[in-house]
Every structure is written in structure tokens, then in C-alpha cells.
């Protein structure tokens, strides 16, 4: 312990020292012990690393590179790769747009008339029938769609539901090669339509629907005639009955409209092209059974309904000429004798008319059917000349028919004309 006297002496000595050295500024307490971390370790200032000559660039505004300039530089350095990449990107974008268009237009748009539950089954049915062929699944989903339509109370004779049934019949015929099963489907459709027409067709409020349903009866009957005549079925009686029913129904309705007039709300009847098609189908059936006396008037009526600018008119005229040349009426005691010369002359007239009609038709209306019709007409002219004993004219026509058939790639015509020339040379 320091004695009190010593401590007082020390204080007096310190006061004299302070008085001898006066301070110009007041004494501040030291803050060394209270410095912050940043004061002890200050942040380093940025320094330029690299070539010091380029330091002056920082004092100038930097040039901004645009996308176009960058793309140009990249193309100059890698021309092939950039071109290939651009092509792939554009192709992918176009493909995506097209896929979206197809999906919206064909996959979704085609079934817009159906409720979504039915449309879902129909999409699956078409997938299993057109893309991934699974007949059992395709038929199953077609039947599910039809059953669901019945449960939902949709009109079974509407165009949409009948279209599903027609699609099912077409699938059974063309892809499964089951024409008999397709016949069963179409016979049910026909029976339903006929029953509805008999019961409700006379009602005034059903006039428009009657026209539509009766038109479907005609179309289904024509198709049934085709299926019954198929080689897998070969039920010619049923084929003839179906075709006769179609033509009779068609002409009867047409005659009623002409005599009574079109009633309000009935709508348009079947067009001339479809009428001609039904008549031609029945005429072809009669011709296949060598009943040319029945086929001839049907061909003649079909020709009168078709446009002369249609290549199918050439085919009809050619068939008419062939039917006339082979026409033999039933032999009964009361029938007059058949004048073969007159029939052959009429047949030649129609064959020449077929050639004249084909000569007028120009592309784009002209197609392969016109050329094949001309070849057949020339061949028939050769046969007509041969029937009359004019061998030179027959040979000339056969040569022309063979040349034309060879030029258009019509192998059947080439074979037929060569066969007739061979027979003429052997005489």
C-alpha cells in the first residue's frame, strides 16, 4: 500500500507537468479497442487484371452486340451447322403445328357431333381399325358406342348414328373380309328404316326425316345388292331383290314428287348421279346374268342422267353398246324376231358416241376411266365389224385398241385385243 503522503505528492507532480505542456486539442478517449471488423480488415479495392493497356476501355461505353450480329458471326464461323440446326428447328415447329391441326380437325373435329363419352369409344374403335389393327377391340368399341347412344336416348336413325353402323359394316367387309356379317348389320339398318317410314312417314312433321330415311334405304339396298353378289356370298336372288327394291323405291318417290309436287319441308331428293348409280348397279347385275334385254333400258336411262363431261359417261355408253349387241329377248310365240343387223348398228352408234364423248373431255376432268373406256369401245367396234363379216375393219380396230391399251397400261385390254387378233390370223 502506498502511503497517503506519497500519493498526494504524485498528484501535485502530475498537475505541474500538465501545466508545463498545455494541449492544443482536448484529449479524446482512444477507440482502438472498439474498431469494427471492416476497420481492421478493409475491403480491397478492385484492380484490373490483364493487359494494363486495355484499362482505358473501361472509361468508354461498351458496345452492345445484338442478336442479329451474334447470329451473323456464328453463321460465318459454323455455316453448315447453323443451317442444319435452323432447318431442324423450323421443321420441328411446322411439324408441331401440323400435328396440332390434325388433332383438332380430324381427331377432335370429326367427332364434334357426338357426346364426348360416345366420341371417346369411336376414337378407340378407329384406332384399333385403322392404326393398330385389333378387330375384336374395334368391334367392341363400335358396339359400346352404339349401346351408349341408345342409353343416352339419341335418335337411332340420325345421320351420326347411322354413320357409325355403316362404318362398322365397312370395317367388317373390307378389313375383316366378312361380307355376310356386314350384310346382317345393313339388313338390320334397312329393316329399322323401312319400319319407321311405314309408321311415321305419313306425318307432316316428319317430312324432312322421311326424305332422309328413305334415301338411306335406297343406298343401303344398293350396297346389299353388291354384297350379295360378292364371290364369297353369291346369293344372286337376294342381290337382284335388293337392287330392284332400291330402283323401285327411288323411281316411285321421284314419280310422286313429279305428280304431286314437293311438299313443304320435304327437302331435296337423291341427286341424278346417285339415281344413275343405282340404275347402273341393277343393269350390271342383269348383264352378269346375260339378261341384256333388261340391262339395256337401265343403261340407257343412266346415260340420260349423267353429265357428258364426266368420264363415267364413256363407260356407260360402252356398256350400253355391248349390251345392245348381245341383246336377246325372251323367246315366246308372240315375240317378233330379233333383227341382229339393227342391234349391231345401234351398238356401233353408241360405241362411236363413247369415243366422241371422250374426245371432248379434257384434263383435269379427263382421267384413266376415259382412256380405258376408249380402248374398250375400239375393241367392241372390232367385234361389231367381225359380226358383220368385215375382217379388215375388225383387224384395224383390234390393232388400235391394243395400241391404246398398251399406251395407258390397260393389261386387260391388251390381252383381249391380242386374243381376237390371234383368232383372226388363224382363219
Question: Care to describe what's here?
Answer:
With 427 residues, this protein is mostly helical. Helix content is 70%, strand content 0%. The chain contains 17 helices and no strands. The chain has helices at residues 4-20, 37-40, 67-77, 79-108, 116-131, 135-151, 159-175, 179-200, 207-228, 236-260, 272-288, 292-305, 311-325, 340-360, 368-387, 391-408, 411-425. Helix 10 (236-260) runs antiparallel to helix 11, helix 11 (272-288) packs antiparallel against helix 12 (292-305) and helix 15 (368-387) runs parallel beside helix 17 (411-425).
Keywords:
427 residues; mainly alpha; disordered N terminus
In brief:
By secondary structure, this protein is mostly helical.
Helix-strand blueprint:
Layout (H helix, E strand, L loop, with lengths): L3 H17 L16 H4 L26 H11 L1 H30 L7 H16 L3 H17 L7 H17 L3 H22 L6 H22 L7 H25 L11 H17 L3 H14 L5 H15 L14 H21 L7 H20 L3 H18 L2 H15 L2
Helix pairs in contact: 3-4, 5-6, 6-7, 7-8, 8-9, 9-10, 10-11, 11-12, 12-13, 13-14, 13-15, 14-15, 15-16, 15-17, 16-17
Amino acid at each position: 500500500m502506498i502511503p497517503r503522503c506519497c500519493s498526494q505528492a504524485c498528484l501535485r507532480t502530475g498537475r505541474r507537468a500538465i501545466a508545463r505542456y498545455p494541449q492544443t486539442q482536448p484529449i479524446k478517449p482512444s477507440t482502438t479497442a472498439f474498431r469494427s471488423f471492416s476497420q481492421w480488415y478493409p475491403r480491397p479495392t478492385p484492380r484490373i487484371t490483364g493487359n494494363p493497356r486495355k484499362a482505358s476501355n473501361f472509361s468508354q461505353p461498351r458496345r452492345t452486340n445484338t442478336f442479329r450480329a451474334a447470329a451473323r458471326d456464328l453463321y460465318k464461323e459454323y455455316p453448315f451447322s447453323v443451317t442444319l440446326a435452323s432447318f431442324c428447328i423450323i421443321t420441328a415447329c411446322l411439324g408441331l403445328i401440323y400435328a396440332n391441326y390434325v388433332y383438332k380437325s380430324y381427331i377432335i373435329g370429326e367427332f364434334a357431333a357426338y357426346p364426348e363419352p360416345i366420341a371417346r369409344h369411336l376414337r378407340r374403335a378407329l384406332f384399333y381399325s385403322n392404326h393398330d389393327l385389333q378387330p375384336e377391340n374395334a368391334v367392341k368399341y363400335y358396339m359400346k358406342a352404339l349401346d351408349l347412344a341408345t342409353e343416352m336416348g339419341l335418335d337411332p336413325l340420325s345421320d351420326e348414328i347411322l354413320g357409325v353402323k355403316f362404318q362398322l359394316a365397312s370395317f367388317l367387309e373390307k378389313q375383316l373380309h366378312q361380307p355376310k356379317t356386314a350384310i346382317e348389320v345393313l339388313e338390320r339398318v334397312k329393316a329399322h328404316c323401312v319400319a319407321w317410314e311405314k309408321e311415321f312417314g305419313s306425318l307432316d312433321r316428319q317430312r324432312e326425316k322421311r326424305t332422309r330415311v328413305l334415301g338411306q334405304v335406297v343406298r343401303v339396298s344398293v350396297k346389299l345388292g353388291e354384297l350379295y353378289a360378292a364371290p364369297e356370298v353369291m346369293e344372286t336372288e337376294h342381290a337382284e331383290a335388293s337392287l330392284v327394291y332400291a330402283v323401285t323405291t327411288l323411281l316411285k318417290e321421284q314419280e310422286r314428287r313429279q305428280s304431286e309436287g314437293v311438299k313443304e319441308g320435304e327437302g331435296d331428293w337423291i341427286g341424278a348421279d346417285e339415281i344413275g348409280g343405282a340404275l347402273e348397279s341393277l343393269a350390271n347385275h342383269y348383264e352378269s346374268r346375260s339378261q341384256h334385254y333388261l340391262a339395256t333400258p337401265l343403261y340407257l336411262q343412266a346415260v340420260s342422267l349423267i353429265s357428258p363431261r364426266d368420264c363415267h359417261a364413256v363407260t356407260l355408253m360402252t356398256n350400253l353398246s355391248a349390251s345392245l349387241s348381245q341383246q336377246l329377248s325372251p323367246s315366246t310365240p308372240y315375240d317378233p324376231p330379233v333383227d341382229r343387223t339393227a342391234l349391231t348398228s345401234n351398238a356401233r352408234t353408241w360405241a362411236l358416241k363413247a369415243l366422241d364423248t371422250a374426245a371432248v373431255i379434257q384434263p383435269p376432268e379427263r382421267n384413266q376411266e376415259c382412256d380405258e373406256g376408249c380402248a374398250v369401245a375400239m375393241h367392241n367396234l372390232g367385234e361389231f365389224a367381225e359380226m358383220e363379216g368385215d375382217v379388215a375393219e375388225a383387224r384395224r380396230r383390234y390393232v388400235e385398241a391394243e395400241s391404246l391399251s398398251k399406251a395407258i397400261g390397260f393389261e386387260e385390254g391388251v390381252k383381249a385385243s391380242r386374243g381376237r387378233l390371234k383368232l383372226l390370223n388363224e382363219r
